[in-house]
UniProtKB/TrEMBL annotation:
GO terms for cellular component: basolateral plasma membrane. Belongs to the ferroportin (FP) (TC 2.A.100) family. SLC40A subfamily. The keyword Cell membrane applies. Keywords: Cell membrane, Ion transport, Iron, Membrane, Metal-binding, Transmembrane, Transmembrane helix, Transport. It comes from the Eukaryota. It comes from Cyprinus carpio. This is Solute carrier family 40 member.
Length: 562
């Protein structure tokens, strides 16, 4: 069969690939992430523009998004687990795109009638519009989280089947799509807003999501049809079997049950009524939250997941914090754009390297190699703290800037603090807005910093893919949603902590301290992974080398995931 398939003409094999469920997932993911990246970039710009070039609304939006995923991640994952796959995917898609469309229309109205809204009801109507925009945008982000869990963490696993190499290739391709859309989508919407207006930008994003929603809905249905395994879900099947068994028992007993059995049945009925009471249902989200975190802690890949979360506690990435620091060190918008492009290329190289190293060394060892690579590259960032041109100065208290903005020079508390937290999880402000950058004595420090950040992306993305596949392979099907929901919560928690760290030390002189703290957290994360890898490899070697199953000296192979 394989030889016959290999003898097929090239155009026929290409045609089969374009019709396959794998390609349809890629296409649907590309459409989804393109819309997500455009919206995530644009909403930050829109909120800054609406509030008079202040980051206040953006900061509030970032806090709301991070807090919502932190609190609701497990609940969203549990909902993904307990419902049919197609229903979850289609519901998440419709809610996400509808929320973005509604938010875009609302922003268009605010941009068009902002002057009139400011005067109505002493500006409270405009404030209400701000609250509605942030709330609807947060709903869109939660729906996007559910969509990401169900497609990237569940559907991809089912489509790949038992072929781990195919799963690794699909994960890498999905991540390459993420990298490309992360660069190209903001560029497109940025050009539209630059040559048009924010009003036109809102309209374009709303129109794109309306078009994309219909096409993605169709692609999901086609993938579902082409992959019959998606119709069967472990957790849902077990619940249905248990309910059917209970009904059959009731039917068999009929009216011939003894008084003891009848009493037991009444007690069970009372217990069911108790469990479906109002208080029980109201506290169900709290129990789900608790059960999700307990289940996450009890997973064999707990330390691997924690290691990935610790990598979010860093300022060594291309977000608004690092680009803002680069601007203070004399880099203009053109240079920053080139550096962001180099970072994307480095990330793509990391995803390609992941597939190659995994085939040669196994999955767990790939994570070890990726961690060593990332840590080695980040030593350049530590060196940049002490290199010529670095503003690092511990004699200047990192809290002086905060106290100055809060209390002013007189020492009395200001009525409206001008300090705005730079909290923007997962949002990147376009670095090309900077026209002129301040002059510095030496570029050695900032050059080492970005050389380390860009080079470390190779190890970072390889490590990210390693942990992602470990979770896919080791978490049972009925718990994929809730475990990945908790993983997202952990990621957002550490991401939020790193922004709080920047709030406490916002001045450039303290950035070197933030770099050292960031590298320390990355090192702690990889130490957790090294512990996980050591225990996993040792246990598998012990099982493989047991007296009943000794390896052949001529072929000492191990399972593919080792």
């Amino acid at each position: 069969m394989e030889k016959a398939a290999s003898k097929k003409p090239c155009f026929e094999r290409v045609g089969e690939f374009f019709k396959s469920a794998k390609f349809l997932i890629y296409l649907g993911h590309a459409l989804s992430t393109w819309g997500d990246r455009m919206w995530n970039f644009a909403v930050a710009v829109f909120l800054v523009e609406l509030y008079g070039n202040s980051l206040l609304l953006t900061a509030v939006y970032g806090l709301v998004v991070a807090g919502s995923v932190l609190l609701l991640g497990a609940i969203i994952g549990d909902w993904v687990d307990k419902n049919p796959r197609l229903k979850v995917a289609q519901t998440s898609l419709v809610v996400q795109n509808s929320a973005v469309i509604l938010c875009g229309v609302l922003l268009m109205a605010v941009f068009q009638f902002k002057v009139q809204l400011t005067t109505l009801y002493n500006g409270w109507l405009l404030t209400t519009c701000y609250i509605m925009v942030i709330t609807i945008a947060n709903i869109a982000n939660l729906a996007s989280t559910a969509m990401s869990i169900t497609i990237q963490r569940d559907w991809v696993v089912v489509v790949a089947g038992d072929d781990r190499s195919k799963l690794a290739d699909m994960n890498a391709t999905v991540r390459i799509i993420d990298q490309l859309t992360n660069i190209l989508a903001p560029m497109l919407v940025g050009q539209i807003m630059a040559f048009g207006s924010h009003f036109i930008g809102c309209g374009f994003i709303s129109g794109w999501n309306l078009f994309s929603m219909g096409l993605e809905y169709f692609l999901l249905w086609k993938v579902y049809q082409k992959t019959p395994a998606l119709a069967f879900k472990a957790g849902q099947k077990d619940a249905d079997d248990q309910e059917l068994k209970h009904l059959n028992v009731q039917k068999e007993t009929g009216n011939s049950e003894s008084p003891a059995e009848g009493s037991q049945l009444m007690n069970e009925t009372a217990e069911v009524k108790k469990n479906t009471s109002c208080c029980y249902q109201m506290t169900e989200p709290i129990r789900t939250f608790k059960d999700g975190w307990v289940a996450y802690y009890n997973q064999s890949i707990f330390f691997a997941g924690m290691s990935l979360s610790f990598l979010y506690m860093t300022v060594l990435g291309f977000d608004c914090i690092t680009t803002g620091y680069a601007y203070t060190q004399g880099l203009n918008g053109s240079v920053l754009s080139l550096l962001m492009g180099a970072s994307a290329i480095s990330g793509i190289c990391g995803t390609v390297a992941f597939t190659w190293i995994r085939k040669k060394c196994g999955l767990i060892r790939t994570g070890f190699i990726a961690g060593v690579t990332q840590l080695s590259c980040l030593t350049l960032c530590v060196a940049s703290v002490f290199a010529p041109g670095s503003p690092f100065d511990l004699s200047i208290s990192p809290f002086d800037e905060v106290l100055k903005h809060l209390f002013g020079d007189s020492g009395s508390l200001r009525e409206s603090p001008t300090l705005v937290p730079t909290i923007e999880p997962k949002i990147q402000i376009n670095a090309t807005v900077f026209e002129k950058a301040p002059q510095v004595e030496s570029y050695m420090s900032v050059s080492l910093l970005f050389a380390g950040v860009i080079a470390a992306r190779i190890g970072l993305w390889s490590f990210d893919l390693t942990v992602t596949q470990l979770i896919q392979e080791n978490v049972i099907e009925s718990e994929r949603g809730i475990i990945n929901g908790v993983q997202n919560s952990m990621n957002y928690l550490l991401d939020l902590l790193h922004f709080i760290m920047v709030i406490l030390a916002p001045n450039p002189e303290a950035f070197g301290l933030l770099v050292i703290i960031s590298v320390s957290f990355v090192a702690m994360g990889h130490m957790m992974y090294f512990r996980f890898a050591y225990k996993s490899l040792r246990s598998r070697l012990f099982l493989f080398c047991s007296p009943e199953q000794k390896p052949d000296p001529n072929n000492p192979s191990l399972p593919n995931s080792v």
